[in-house]
Specification:
mainly beta, 5-stranded mixed sheet, 4-stranded antiparallel sheet, 5% helix, globular
Length: 385
C-alpha cells in the first residue's frame, strides 16, 4: 500500500470516529471532536468557574459557580428550559467556593462549600443551614461529594502535595489518626436533612474529586495523584509519573497516599513504608489527566454503543486531559481495557477544556461544565435532534 493510500485510509478512519456537528439536539454545537453518533451542545456560556451539577425531576439543572478562588463570591444557579433556550436564575450568592450539589427526594438541596455542607430550600435559599462541618485543607479545600440513596460520600482532600515536609519520617501526621486528610467519609442523610457522620470509609486518597456509586454497589474513586515527583526522585520531569488512578473503595481500605504511588510503589519521600499492605488501584489513568467527574452511562436512553460504560471527565491541561473518555465495564461496573474518547480534546476561548462533574439526565444525555471556558454543556446522541 502506498504512502498516499495509507494517509487516505487514516483520514477516512478518523472521520468515522469523530464528528463536528453544527447543531446538537437544538443547541449550538461545541466546536470539539466527538465520537461518531455523539455531539455536545452549548447550553450556556459566559459563566465563571462553573463546577458542580445536579439534575432536578422537572428537567431543570442546578449548577455551582465558584466565581473566585480567593473569596466567598460563588453562586448557585438553576437553568430551566423555555422553548429552545435555557433561562438562568440565581438561587444563592456569596457562597464560599461552592462545588458539589445534590437534590434530596423532598426537593431540598445539599451544597458543598469550603469547610461545610449546607442544606437549603430553593424557595428560601438565603436560609441555608450547615448540616456538616468539615476540616479545612490548604491544598485541596473544595467540598466534592456524591449522593447515593441516603448515603453521602464526601472527599476530605490533603493539605499538602505529598507530605513533603515530613520526608524520610516513618509516618505522615496529616494522613494518620481518626480524622485523616486524603480520605473519603460517609454520612447518612436523615429525614430532616441533617447528616449523621458515619466516619472514614477509606484513606490514602490524596484528592477524591470524583466518586461514583454503581447500582450494584461498587464505589469508585478517581484519584488526582501528586505533583512534582521528579524533584524528589531526581528525574528530569513528571510527565509520566505518577499515574492518576481509579480505585474500588472498600471499608477500612488504605490506598497508599502519601507513602505509595501507582501499583504499590514507594514514594521517594517514604522509601521504607510497607506499600504491599495498601490496596492497589483498580486501574491506572494517564499521569496528570486530573479526573474531576465520573458516572456510568446507564439505562435504555443511553446511546447503545456506550450503554453501561464508565464515563470519566479528564480536566488536566497537559496532553492527557481536556476530554471525556469511556471504559467498558464488567458486571460490577468496574472498568476494563483501554478507554475510548467520547469528546475532545478541545480548547475554547479560555484555554484547554476543563470538564468537571458529570450527571446523566432522564433522556440519556450527559450534562457537565467546562470551568476553564465557562460553559454548561450537554453530550447527547446525534440522532436525538
Amino acid at each position: 500500500m502506498t504512502k498516499t493510500s495509507l494517509c487516505l485510509l487514516a483520514a477516512t478512519w478518523l472521520a468515522a470516529q469523530t464528528t463536528l456537528a453544527a447543531n446538537c439536539d437544538g443547541l449550538p454545537a461545541l466546536a470539539a471532536p466527538a465520537a461518531a453518533g455523539l455531539c455536545a451542545g452549548v447550553v450556556a456560556s459566559g459563566l465563571t468557574l462553573p463546577r458542580g451539577i445536579a439534575l432536578l425531576p422537572d428537567g431543570s439543572v442546578l449548577l455551582t459557580e465558584m466565581v473566585r478562588w480567593d473569596a466567598p463570591a460563588g453562586r448557585l444557579l438553576r437553568f430551566t428550559r423555555s422553548g429552545k433556550t435555557w433561562q438562568k436564575t440565581v438561587l444563592a450568592r456569596q457562597l464560599d467556593r461552592p462545588h458539589s450539589v445534590a437534590v434530596l427526594p423532598d426537593g431540598r438541596i445539599l451544597l458543598g462549600e469550603v469547610g461545610r455542607i449546607s442544606l437549603l430550600d430553593a424557595s428560601r435559599p438565603a436560609q441555608r443551614q450547615t448540616v456538616a462541618s468539615l476540616p479545612l485543607r490548604q491544598r485541596h479545600p473544595l467540598t466534592s461529594f456524591t449522593l447515593a440513596g441516603d448515603t453521602l460520600y464526601v472527599n476530605i482532600g490533603s493539605s499538602s502535595d505529598n507530605c513533603e515536609a515530613q520526608r524520610g519520617q516513618t509516618l505522615c501526621s496529616e494522613a494518620e489518626g481518626g480524622n485523616p486528610a486524603g480520605s473519603v467519609r460517609r454520612y447518612r442523610v436523615l429525614a430532616d436533612g441533617r447528616l449523621q457522620n458515619l466516619g472514614v470509609l477509606a484513606r490514602g486518597l490524596r484528592n477524591s474529586m470524583a466518586i461514583a456509586v454503581h447500582p450494584g454497589g461498587s464505589v469508585l474513586q478517581a484519584e488526582n495523584s501528586r505533583d512534582a515527583q521528579h524533584l524528589a526522585a531526581g528525574l528530569p520531569n513528571d510527565n509520566n509519573l505518577p499515574h492518576d488512578e481509579l480505585n474500588l473503595l472498600q471499608a477500612g481500605g488504605h490506598y497508599g497516599w502519601p507513602y505509595c504511588y501507582d501499583a504499590q510503589r514507594n514514594a521517594p519521600e517514604f522509601p521504607r513504608y510497607a506499600c504491599r499492605t495498601t490496596r492497589a488501584p483498580a486501574m491506572l489513568l494517564p499521569a496528570h489527566s486530573a479526573p474531576l467527574g465520573m458516572t456510568w452511562w446507564l439505562g435504555p436512553q443511553a446511546p447503545a454503543p456506550w450503554r453501561g460504560q464508565l464515563v470519566v471527565g479528564l480536566h488536566g491541561y497537559r496532553q492527557h486531559g481536556q476530554r471525556l473518555v469511556a471504559y467498558a465495564t464488567d458486571g460490577k461496573g468496574l472498568p476494563q481495557g483501554r478507554p475510548h474518547t467520547l469528546l475532545g480534546p478541545w480548547r475554547g476561548k479560555g484555554g484547554p477544556a476543563g470538564p468537571v462533574e458529570i450527571a446523566q439526565a432522564a433522556d440519556g444525555a450527559l450534562w457537565f461544565a467546562d470551568d476553564r471556558n465557562g460553559q454548561l454543556l450537554r453530550l447527547a446522541s446525534h440522532s436525538a435532534r
